[in-house]
Description:
Chain A is an all-alpha fold.
Amino acid sequence: MSEQIVIGELRTGNAAAFRKLVAVYSDRVYNTALGLVQNSGDAEDLSQEVFLEIFKSLPRFREESSLSTWIYRITVRKSLEHIRTARRKKRSGLVFSLFGKENLLKDTTEQPFYHPGIQLENKERAAILFNAMAKLPVNQRSAFTLHKVEGLSHPEIAAIMETSVSSIESLIFRARKKLQDLLSDYYEKNEH
Amino acid sequence: MKAKEQWIEETLGSLDGIRGAKASSALVSNLESMTEMPGFGSCTLRPALYWPAAAALALLLAMNILVFTNYHRSTGQPKEPTEILAEDYLSYLGPIKL
C-alpha cells in the first residue's frame, strides 16, 4: 500500500490503517525512544505519547517529508523533551539538597542501562558507553543514537533533524570525540 | 596508554551489531486500543479547510432560514418572532426566489 493511500486512510480515521501503522512503527518508535532516554518504562510512555501525537497531528501533516521521517521526528522531539525535563528536575533537586532537603530524585543517568539488543559479550561495555552518551549535548546525543542504535544513515538523520548531511557528520564526529574524552576519564577512575 | 586507547575503541564499538528492541505486546495492545478512544474515526479536517467549511455552513443556514420564511409567507400563517427577525436580518439580500 503506497504511503499516500495509508495517509489518506489514516486521515479518515480508519482504525485498521492505524493498527497497521502501529504494527509497522511501534518497534522503531520504542527502540528510538529507548536509545535516547535509556529507560524502558519511560520509553513505553513516550511511545504512547508519540502515537497519540501522530493521531492528533495527521491533519497538519503536509507530506513534505516521508511518513517514517515525520514519525521519527516526533519520537526524537518527545524524547528530548523528556530528557530536558528530567535534567531540570535533577537541577532543582540539587538546589533543594543545598538547603538540607533530601534530593529524592535519583540520578538515573548513573544507573547502568542494559539495552536488550546488545550482544552478551558487549553488555557491560555498552552500559558504560550509554552512560557516557547520556552526558552528550542533546543534538550530538540524538545524531549519535539515531546512527548507532537505530542504524540510520546520515541523510536519513539529516531529514529527521531537519539539517544538512554535513551538520550530521559534524555532530557525530564531535559526539565521538566527546565520548572518547568521557571514556578516558572513566578509564582513569575505574579501569586503571 | 595503548591499553586505554584500545579499551576506548572497544567500548565505542560495543554497539556494533546491536539489534532493535521490540515493543512489548502490552505496549502494542495499548497503542492499538487508541482506536477505541472517543473521537477516533471522526472526520478530521485540515486547518486550511476550516474557513471554507465555516462559510459553507453559514450559507446552508442562511438558505434554510430563507426557505423557512418563504414557506410560512406562502401558507398565510402568522409569522413567528424568529421569522420576523430572520426576514429583517436577511432583507439586505433582496428578493431571492428559490
